[in-house]
């Protein structure tokens, strides 16, 4: 049993998790369906968005340079970093050089990807997550299990117990009591923080702006009250023009949360300028590669079209059953099983591409129509090439293919197996309920029908003369 | 049926078909294979079964074993490329393998790729062929209370939707009940079912619960793989295997 299968099996037996998933997943799916249907020309908009992403990535270098130039013209400082270590080191340096002690963050999957919080804490900096879900994750020393809804694995009662322990709210508190308690803590931190860290949903090349999408308003707080704002931007987040961002924002809100537009869509175009009274004194934009150039150069580049809406997670029958933690990676679900190996190679992630029945529900839901099953097939082929396939499977399929191109042998094999199945123990109404070796995986929960003594093709050949 | 398909059906109605019976039906369900022949002949086409046919190569392809998949696909082309007429197969996923994936499998081999593209254009799933190519609505069948599970590759990869339902609704005395979460995968997924048995079984369980909730006596499918998976689960739980292939339902006519 491999790591994914082991964690998935645990998840399937976790009553709380199963309840949490069943309570929420359908709402996401139905919300998206309603919102996309309500968009004028929603399907054409998806086609357009796909073209925007494809064209942008085809000239990513140019758009990034335009972005850098325009952002600098606005007074932002722009940095380029290769990987997670460089990114974390840079954030820490910026903080230390400016005497920063307290940091507030809005939700950023890129910061999860580079494990920023761990690095900040190790450097003696205080960091607080201000997105409610991420705050709960941080309180429980947990990990997000969904890229949009980080605590989809928790029930209300789980959160109430956690808040009771850490914030002293009643153990059976309702949602308003819990949010009020979180709000009280968070408000104070916004006012005390020296630095705000965000990700970026998009980076607009022609204006040098960072676009943030939130529903709680914490993103605005994080980018206005502290004197320094640091934005982490994956290099594939860039979009050439404001008009194109408009298209993507509509699809992002509809696909992620079923909204026509998120409650807060914030465009940040440089630091505070005279005579403005609000906003940070400094804006630092860190363009992070961390495997993206590698992905762009390979046969999985299409995965960089992703706008991180999470719709593929919500419809995936695997994700819906096991939740996000089973994947053991920052990005779970269909997007995760492609993007983790695309960014960092199959080595640590060779199990992930197997975690799909190739049903295609993800592609159907994807706002930019990423053909995830096709990318998974490429990854599986790469996985075989790199020697990750189990020996029994490699030899079994080699033998099967060899027989399949020798029809007489194929038929003989069928007859031999049909004869041999009589020797298997515990048959039930002719069905096999135990199969040997790796095939036991099938029979633990399923019977296997009896092989026919005479195949259809043999029967057909025998009777062919009598057919009209 | 699309208007163009309807026009095509009236202009050039196929007189004969090449049946690709699939490895699963050939060796596990020869009676269902016979049922396919019965229905196709009732619809007025001559059925030919090209000798030497085995497997389309999908198990290897989905597992990432491209060399083996190519080997089997080449064999398929050897068997079918020189034949004429539509190639009909009672499996959405095998039809998708041939129609959707074969041409890409031979990228860089122009001669094979041309053969693969020609064969890909000729492949039809059984229900799709009856409705879209032959314009059948009332082919007959066994009356009963049915629900229908649309298999993933048939509905999503091939985009074939509504054909099986049309044929079932056309059976006198048949009732078609909606299946909750109909388009959710049954959890088979080929090697997926063996590599990740617990997840696969959880998906299967959900599908079985939805079939029960539909109130149907029989759940109809167009893929023997989903059928094997779901019936396998039912049998293992000591229940009756009530998932059946569309061809069986259509073949049986009330005396």
Q: How would you describe what is shown here?
A:
The complex is a heterodimer of chains A (468) and B (255). In chain A, 52% of the residues lie in helices and 10% in strands. Chain A has 468 residues and is an alpha/beta fold. In chain A, the strands form 2 sheets. In chain A, strands 1-10-7-4-2-3 form a 6-stranded parallel beta sheet, sandwiched between helices. In chain A, strands 8-5-6-9 form a 4-stranded mixed beta sheet, sandwiched between helices. In chain A, strand 5 (202-204) and strand 6 form a beta hairpin. In chain A, helix 2 (15-38) crosses helix 12. The N and C termini of chain A lie far apart (53 Å). Helix content of chain B is 54%, strand content 11%. Chain B has a 4-stranded parallel beta sheet with strand order 2-1-3-4, with helices on both faces. In chain B, strands 6-5-7-8 form a 4-stranded parallel beta sheet, with helices on both faces. In chain B, helix 5 crosses helix 7. The longest helix of chain B is centred in the C-terminal third of the chain and has 18 residues, at 197-214. Chain B is globular and about 50 Å long. Classes of the chains: A alpha/beta (468), B alpha/beta (255). Chains A and B meet through helix 1, helix 15, helix 18, helix 19 and helix 20 of A and helix 2, helix 3, helix 4, helix 5 and helix 9 of B.
């Amino acid at each position: 049993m491999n790591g994914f299968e082991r964690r998935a099996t645990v998840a399937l037996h976790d009553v709380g998790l199963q309840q949490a998933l069943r309570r929420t997943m359908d709402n996401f799916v139905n919300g998206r369906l309603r919102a996309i249907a309500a968009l004028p020309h929603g399907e054409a908009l998806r086609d357009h968005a796909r073209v925007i992403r494809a064209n942008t990535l085809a000239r990513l270098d140019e758009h990034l340079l335009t972005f850098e130039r325009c952002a600098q013209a606005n007074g932002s400082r722009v940095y380029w970093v290769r990987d997670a270590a460089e990114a974390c080191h840079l954030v820490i340096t910026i903080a230390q050089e400016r005497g920063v002690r307290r940091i507030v963050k809005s939700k950023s999957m890129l910061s999860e990807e580079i494990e920023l919080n761990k690095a900040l804490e190790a450097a003696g900096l205080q960091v607080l997550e201000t997105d409610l879900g991420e705050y709960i994750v941080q309180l429980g020393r947990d990990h997000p299990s969904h890229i949009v809804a980080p605590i989809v694995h928790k029930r209300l009662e789980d959160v109430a117990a956690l808040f009771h322990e850490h914030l002293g709210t009643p153990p059976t508190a309702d949602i308003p009591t819990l949010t009020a308690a979180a709000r009280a803590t968070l408000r104070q931190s916004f006012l005390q923080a020296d630095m705000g860290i965000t990700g970026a949903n998009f980076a607009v090349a022609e204006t040098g702006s960072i676009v943030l999408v939130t529903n709680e308003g914490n993103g605005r707080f994080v980018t206005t009250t502290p004197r320094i704002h640091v934005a982490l931007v994956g290099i594939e987040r860039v979009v050439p023009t404001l008009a194109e961002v408009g298209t993507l924002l509509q699809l992002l809100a509809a696909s992620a949360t079923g909204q026509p537009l998120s409650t807060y869509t914030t465009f940040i175009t440089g630091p505070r300028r005279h005579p403005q009274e609000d906003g940070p004194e400094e804006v630092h934009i860190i363009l992070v590669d961390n495997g993206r150039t590698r992905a762009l150069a390979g046969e999985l580049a299409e995965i960089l079209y992703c706008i991180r809406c999470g719709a593929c997670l919500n419809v995936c029958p695997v994700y819906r059953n096991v939740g996000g933690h089973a994947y053991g990676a920052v990005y779970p679900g269909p997007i995760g099983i492609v993007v983790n190996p695309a960014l960092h190679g199959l080595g640590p992630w060779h199990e992930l591409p197997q975690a799909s029945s190739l049903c295609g529900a993800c592609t159907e839901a994807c706002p930019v129509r990423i053909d995830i099953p096709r990318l998974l097939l490429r990854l599986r082929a790469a996985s075989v090439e790199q020697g990750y396939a189990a020996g029994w499977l490699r030899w079994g399929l080699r033998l099967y293919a060899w027989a399949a191109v020798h029809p007489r042998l194929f038929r003989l094999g069928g007859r031999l197996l049909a004869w041999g199945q009589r020797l298997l123990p515990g048959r039930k109404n002719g069905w096999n309920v135990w199969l040997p070796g790796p095939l036991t995986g099938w029979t633990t929960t399923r019977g296997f029908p009896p092989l026919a003594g005479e195949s259809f093709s043999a029967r057909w050949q025998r009777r062919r003369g009598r057919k009209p | 049926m699309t208007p163009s398909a309807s026009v095509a059906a009236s202009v050039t109605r196929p007189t004969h078909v090449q049946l690709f019976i699939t490895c699963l039906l050939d060796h596990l369900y020869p009676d269902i294979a016979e049922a396919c022949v019965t229905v196709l002949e009732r619809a007025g086409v001559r059925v030919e079964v090209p000798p030497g046919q085995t497997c389309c190569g999908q198990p290897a392809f989905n597992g990432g074993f491209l060399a083996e998949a190519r080997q089997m696909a080449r064999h398929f082309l050897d068997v079918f490329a020189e034949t004429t007429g539509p190639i009909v197969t009672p499996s959405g996923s095998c039809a998708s393998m041939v129609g959707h994936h074969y041409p890409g499998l031979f990228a860089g081999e122009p001669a094979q790729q041309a053969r693969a593209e020609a064969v890909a254009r000729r492949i039809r799933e059984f229900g799709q062929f009856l409705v879209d190519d032959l314009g059948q609505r009332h082919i007959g069948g066994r009356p009963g209370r049915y629900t229908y599970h649309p298999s993933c590759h048939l509905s999503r990869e091939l985009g074939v939707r509504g054909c099986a339902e049309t044929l079932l609704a056309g059976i006198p005395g048949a009732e078609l009940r909606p299946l909750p979460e109909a388009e959710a995968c049954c959890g088979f997924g080929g090697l997926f079912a063996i590599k990740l048995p617990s997840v696969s079984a959880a998906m299967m369980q959900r599908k079985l619960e939805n079939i029960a909730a539909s109130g149907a006596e029989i759940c109809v499918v167009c893929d023997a793989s989903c059928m094997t998976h779901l019936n396998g689960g039912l049998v293992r739980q000591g229940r009756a295997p009530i998932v059946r292939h569309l061809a069986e339902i259509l073949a049986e006519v009330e005396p």
